[in-house]
Task: structure prediction
Amino acid sequence: MPVKVVGIRFKAAGKIYYFDPGDFELQIGDFAIVETTRGIEFGMVVVGPKEVEEEEVVAPLKSVIRKATDEDRAQLQENNNNEQDAYKICMEKIEKHDLPMKLIEVEQTFDGNKIIFYFTADGRVDFRELVKDLAAVFRTRIELRQIGVRDEAKMLGGLGCCGRELCCNSWLAEFEPVSIRMAKDQNLSLNPTKISGICGRLMCCLKYENEVYEEAKKQFPEYGTNVNTESGEGKIIGFNIFRDSVSVELKENKHVMDFPLKDIDINNNTKGEKSGPSSR
Result:
């Protein structure tokens, strides 16, 4: 049964959550106050009212409390100021306890019932005394949450090797798995400094075109396939999907030559010794 929802985001490039708009007329760009598992939150409508299948909704579907008012915007600004103060105080407490952790960001829920401190660390950190100190200062619920290097980059932002803002910080809502196989399939250099982002992990953009490469490769013979060319017999040792060509090592003189895919004939569908693509 279809359910009417609106999509609301709480952070730039954050995940989109569905809520029941009720009788409120909400449009993309409007701000709204909603109830979440963390409490009352302030968010922006990024998906206008629409109907989705019930299985697409995470139950229970919570309702929009109200459209954001000027008072709500003022409260949000006050919360932002409080977060900056909390960041400074937490840094002082971390230094006081000499804890091996790096504070990344502080977030206060809209209703002020909780303050979340995000940090990175090489291992487990005993921050029990730190929590006690922070709770004594702010007199509210305190949560310390350890995050990974990818989340750190998403929160702090920066510029990628392409010269643009990091995808994770500007628009990428969720991280997707990225593997070294994707770099190999795209014939990229396997030098870690060239295929890693500023977080030190494989660049998210390796995923974007991977399906195109996978589909394009289906028309090419496998590595090691014996073929006939105008220059003689040989075996395929590489290919270029953009030029629609293959690299063939000739049997007679071991020279490597490039041929258009349409100009080669597979030699009885037999294969020679397989070899992988060379890094370039």
About this structure: The CA atoms of residues 233 and 252 lie 8 Å apart. The helical segments are 70-97, 128-138, 149-156, 167-170, 180-185, 192-195, 210-217. Residues 269-280 have pLDDT under 50 and may be disordered. The radius of gyration is 27 Å.
